[in-house]
Amino acid sequence: MTDPVLKKVKKYIEERNWPNHTTKELKPYLQRRDELSLEKGVILWGHRLVIPAKLREKILAGLHTSHFEYPGQKHWQDPWYIGQI
Known about the structure:
The chain is of the alpha+beta class. The protein has 4 helices and 3 strands. The chain has helices spanning about 5-15, 25-30, 55-70, 75; strands spanning about 35-40, 40-45, 50.
């Protein structure tokens, strides 16, 4: 994992040791710490994948192009990510 923010989040989840105060970038994760988990090294927010900020635009663009090919699948292709809400 190369995303420095998600590296820290992964460490906090693994160690179950979140700081009381944190940086602006980590604040949304700290607020949802009880909803975050790891599955085979992947950070999940509930049942959703947490996408690194660097990849969000690329993944979103790819999902939007696939709507035309598979319109019935739109309901599960709308990504949610920390900081979106």
